[in-house]
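Q: Can someone sanity-check these two? First one:
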Amino acid sequence: MQMEKSLIPTAVLCWLCGAAISQIAGQQVRATPPQIQAISPDQLASPTQRLMIEQVDELIATGEADEALALLERLLDEANGRLVAVNHLEAASTLRTQRYLPLADWVGIRTAKLLHQFPQAATNYQSRNQAQAANALQDLQTSKNPTVALYAARRFFATQQGRDFQLLLCDLYLENGWGLAAAQVLQQLSPELRFRVNSDASPTTLLDWTLPAALVHHREEGHEPVRLSNAPNPSDPAAADPAAAAQVAEENRSEVLLRGLMAAAMNPQELDGAATQVPNSNAARLSQSRFTTWPAWSQSLEKYSANNDRVLASKPRVGESQRSTLPYFPVVHNGIVYVNEMTRIVAYDLDSGKPWPDSQSVLPLFDSHISAAAFLPLGYPLIGAPRGTLSIANDCLYARMGSPITGRMNAQLASSNGASASYLIGLDLRKQGSLLQGFPLHLNAPEFVNAEFDGTPLAWGQMLVVAVAQRDNVGLRRSVAAFDRVTGQLIWKSGILAAGSVAGSERANLISHQVLTLAGGRLYYNTNLGSIACLDPLTGDTLWLVQYSTPLESKEFLRPNRHRYRDLTPCLLSSGLVYCAPQDAPEIFALDATTGDLVWSTDDATAADAIHLLGVTQDSLIVSGDRIVWLDKFTGRLLGRFPGSTTPLPFGALPSPRGLGRGAVTGNLVYWPTAGEIWVFGADIKKPSMGQGAPKLVGRTSLDTGIGDGGNLLFYENVMLVCSPNRLMSFPALASPASAP
């Protein structure tokens, strides 16, 4: 008996020691700086061009300015969408990033510096280019073509008319309402409009970075996250007095333009769709939190499971059940609710729940004639789960249909005619959902080989822009393509923005769903494959590309890797920042929307289990998954979370209550779905001087039916729509006591 008594504490001690060793091992692994493992983009400057760049520096060092100018002009002629890497890596917390910029922009900036350094060479350069630049500027003032204006602004950047080209390009962007594009041009034109920031050695901020003027004017009560080395005078009357601002406008037009643009960028409502994660969510700004507990109407939806999903992450899935996923993200347009069920598109009247356009018919708006049982190829291993999203623009509905597979394990199983197994549809809602001309739209050779549509298309003007995936025996390649939204004709195709493989998909069919973000005349793409890209939607040219570090796997210390459940996290834009939550990195980070500079990053544990970027409020970025987390939107600092912290180990406890589905930020409230219940919090947390704040619980609503496995929420006017795994339900708002009869 004495031996048995002594064995019990010994076993407990061994268990505790083992746990401690595991924790120490985990800390050692996390202490190892992550590596940027992404493959260099295919638009990277060629070896010959990189050699020419080195020769330019050598010629400048020896004072041979004319020879260097000739080489720079040759580089500009051959730029053709090529990219060059910024020399230094950027770092914040546990994240590292590498930026790539257009070679044409680099040539213009380098030429301007050279001319400033060698006045005689500048005189010769200006005399050679003055007449050509003047003629080009005159032609542009007549044609007003923004694409031609961009190329001309790059060509004549270092000439005496360079500023006029930039301002003309800015005017053209502003006439079209493209605020971010205009701000991007002005900041390149006037570097003094960006301010260098000196911060302390905080683990969540950079040591050396810059921000637009409007952002550095931001100050938080009781907390100043940055110190400026050359900040403008805060008592400047132009900041508050319109008359003084008008006087400054005459002196420095570009600075006034930038102030207005960045002020608009700080208000996400003034950017076209910048603050929405899933396109066209149309969330209403509700001030109340009480809804009926029984649905006014409901409609059945097809139920899908993820039992065959082999994502290399600890179970259970984040934010949803393994047996019944939450794949549906409805859209409301003109009082009609539209849902992409993957095999068909259905529509219902928002008030009555009756089918649309024929209330007596059970037929869908569009039918792919694929049965739900045959939709998922269950005989093959899978990575990922299908998602049903759609977009609506100009009374036309667009969606991805067909096979959910975006990367086939065996390319030989593709269709015999070389066309993609997936396709896009366009429905004219003014004609009761009739198919638009040019649809269905497939990807065909020779432009697209072994390619599939990688998500829902977005309409921009007369174009549809959509992510494209191509997979062969080498790996997966992701790009973006634009098609005429009426005829389906290919307009442009970007270069390969990311290449590699999704963990675990080497011997499985890949199911992915990439959603693009359009804001202020710029297109942002979280590739979930090692890079974030900003594109010009007019041409598909890459304006900047940022590669980020991904964690190195360790056989000694197994990670939960719950960030790999982020399969629907497009870029979220607000306050001039791009918020990113990639699938292949545990960090959430923010980039400067105009330059791609890394502004802040969380560490690899703070929000690694967050799979939804819910939205941005006055002070906070709100993310959710198994729990809901508030981050300071300017610094990334953890403000609060609910429930509290849990053990970040493969066998650690899950939060209780546990989030199930995508919530919503509406006005000053945050709605967070759990099993059978919706929790309502205040959108902002009072920032503590130290530690974390406490989320303010406003209310809890227990729904009487239908959401035992959670649901995705959508608010429209005075209705809360809930998409559970197998039902679409409408919950009207309860009248407040003040408005009750």
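And here is the second, same format, sequence then tokens:
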Amino acid sequence: MENSLSKKGARVLPALMAILTLVGGFAAEGATHTYQYFRFTPTKFRNPATPEVQMSEFRFRLDNTLVTPTAITAPTGNSPAGETVANLKDTLLTTKWFSFAHSPLVFSFASPVSVNNYSFATGNDEEGRDPVSWTLEGSATGTTGPWTLIDVVTDFNTTINRRVFIGDFVIPAELPPAFTFFDVTPSIVLNGQSTDLDWFASGSPVSTLTPSGGDISDLTYSPVTPPANQDTEYVLTATNSAGSLSSKHTVRAVAGGTASYRYVRFRPLAVRSLTSTEIQMADFRFYGTANTDEKIPVAVYEEGGSPTETAAEGPNKLRDGLPATKWYSATKKNLIFDFGSTQAFDTYRITSGNDSIDRDPVRWILEGSADATTWTRFDDVSLFDYDVPIARLQEFSVPVPGGSLPPLADFAADSIKVLTGEPLKLTWTTQDAASVTISPSPGTVAASGTVTLTPAASTNYTLTATSPAGFKTVRTIPVTVVSSPVSTIAYDSFDTESGELSLVGFASVLNDFANIPKPGNAKRLRVVPDVTGRGGAAWFSKRVPVATGFDTTFNFMITKGDPGVGADGFAFVVQDDPAGDGALGSGEAGLAARALNVQFDTYQNAGELSAAFLRVLTGTTVQITLNL
């Protein structure tokens, strides 16, 4: 793939392209595992939302010798006639196993067999049904186990080609460590108080915990006392001969204080599942001094709703003190608590719902008001995920932070990569900060502002906003300074690219002539690989004047095995947004301001004109749309 670019005065050149990557199969020797029964369980699919699964063949090998099961079952499957599990061992790629419901596959042998690698083949259609993550287990006693985990594969780049084996997977002699759980109880404590870290790591690893440090290989529990007035990230690392794995939790220590309001607004920002829009809680309670003086609101309602709302799972259930009832919403709506008069409290308690841990709120903001119109932020759990208990109907207590309320801080650079001698603009805004500094320069600054610097070398610029109690909110921007002979955007190929392009997301400059020979043996700009849900952008790091106009010519290629699906599109953007490289991110949407955005849409989503149309925007305003 090649992009040929010739352009006067353009600030940026992003383009989205998909490249087909083929995965070849081979038979390799792995560690030998001997069992009479094996269980293969898909845990993730190319389309995460699909309830269906399919494969055309599944084979086990010992070195290069096939080991064929006597029977295969899908315990929770639902297959139509002609597409049953028997097709997985008929040696025909033209038949398949299909199930309307996800199910593990259980392979039975007449007696114990030894295997060291395995593979499966894709079905004839619907690539969204392909497994991309799975586990493999063995059992010596029967189809119901007990099972021993012998392989785990996560986010494999399963080929989109149909009716082909995706390659042999070597079963390792030892699995890398895995955490069955790693919990912190609670996530927020008062200064000087301790919290408990609990974990279990499989694979007989040696474990270390930082910042506490030390060898904790014989422990599954450690109390820690986090430093006062700050967020502390505790990292647990488990290591064995097969690899290393780390997991982390953030613990916050606050000074504590009292909030006094008639109205409290709860703004849920995120739930445990990144894809869920649902939220639920069984109870939400407020307490005064020493957690003994409960302040019960006279009404609880969704913002914009009615204080007298009495739905079966309405917000009023949060104040009834009954864990058996709950508030449930299909969308993450704000809640209003009305106490009838001004009430003072220093703690609030949340009880998780009765089911679906995906609906647990893990990030939120609390605000208070005297009139339900003007709101003041008094707690902010938006910088990390609160570790809500996995067990259902569990109550956890959160202290009001008082002076340890984390300051709000937005910090942006107009480029994360600048050419030698080019200016760099830093922009910031803060709230609830007693002091603000930017290091290594300019030092102490106002609560909000802009500064232009000319860095001589690559530098990490760090903004620190400090609350009256000493709580610090930190934002860091790494800026790379590049010396490049390229000063204009004029590429016959990208062999001449010398680091002057700022690559965002999954963008890269590479020579992929071996896989895609057209248009030639040269480096090209690949903005996204051929993987679902990926995005990227490429920005030219040197500012170029455009006031007198410009012209540009570029070539692009979208390569995909199936013409019915592919990259959603790409965009050509000229912009002078303060967020610079981060203004567009890795998507194709128009910028909020100071941007010319030419969008080439190459996939027909619901409600769009066709699978090929062009749209021109200035900022977010559509100027013209052409159906191609």
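A (reply): Looked at the second one. The longest strand covers residues 33-45. The chain has no helices and 48 strands.
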